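Key idea: predict the complex, not the pieces.
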Amino acid sequence: MKTEQQLDAMISQLAPAIEPQRDLWPELSARLEPRQRRGYGSWMGVAAAAVLTFWFWPQQLPTAPQDVVTNAQGQSMPAVSLLDVSRQLGLQLEQEQTRQLKALQQIPDGFTDWAQQIAIWNKAQAQIELALQFQPDNQKLIQQLQRLQQQQLSYIAKLVETSELT
Amino acid sequence: MQQQLETWVHQAKKGDQQAFYQLYHQFKGRVYAICLRLLADRGQAEDATQEAFVRAWQQLPGFRGDSSFSTWLHSISSRTAVDIWRKNKVMRLVVDEEPEEQGYVDAPEMPQLEQAILRLPSQARAVFVLFALEGYQHNEIAEMLGIAEGSSKAQYHRARQLLRSWVDEN
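Result:
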């Protein structure tokens, strides 16, 4: 039996590298996803869409509730409510946010609870949307909803910006 | 060489796959050695090597250079191989009591001690490789492998004893 010292000597002589018997690069390189440039471009797009939406919304507000509109042929059609538009935009915003957040390689310090933060905003927005079902023309509720969406957008933009700096 | 390495790391961080290939070419042998010694299976070691480099690529933007790239990659490789080792452990469903002839690697070209390491029982081999070759402490190994620190020490001594006897008999 070898002594402890002889074994230690043999261990120290082991090669630091063993070459694989086949080329692993082709399969490996196929799994490397291109690095996504998380620039401001896509966020600028979302922000611009949001700003335009918020700008034009108040101007398009109906003066009275309109459940039915009449088209050129005199046929009655259901009107698209402000609440529907709000929901649709909220959904698009949420999808874009999810996509952007998934693309983040690393969550910076101070943002580790981002999922909870987003969930809180989503919950608050859902509550306002519920209130809007009962008061679809309540300007204050609509403004509150817009403010929440803007806050959420700013938070995620800051998260992405900080992530890029680290 | 060091400067060249830093350039490749910098370029790979920005998404240059050619630069990352140079890093792969430079370090594939070391990564594969960790994986093969831990897993004692060529196919699994190849998979683990690929997985380690994929993880390195994904985590590279977060590499700040606090340690050397080699140390950083080494750590990723060890943990990747250990992840696969732990999956194997769950699948084995048997207690690793007696020395087993792994039979996974027929490697007559390898040095005698290298072959003996691959013959070690799974847990003793993992502890031995991580402690004696990779420089981890027993408390770290215990956490990585999901065993008690005392077990890690016991397995290490067992591995040494087996290696001393096996190397001697050949």
